[in-house]
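quick one before i forget lol
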Amino acid sequence: MANIMIRTADSGGLTFYLPKRDLEASISSIEFDTPEKWGGELKLDNGGIYFIDPIARPSRLPISLRARRIGAAED
């Protein structure tokens, strides 16, 4: 599992950042997006797929979490 950061992008969407690989990508979809359950499978605009354990929606961003890679980005 890797440490990641999720923050709000200037465009209003969410940005995924993986410091260890200096990977930054927009989140194109998030599996669970309700106040009670937020997270699950994150699909990135570069084709990568990561999983974070669902939590209550954070009151503010950025937030640091642990994520597991499910699918690699397409080159």
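fyi The beta strands are 2-8, 14-18, 23-33, 38-44, 49-55, 63-71.
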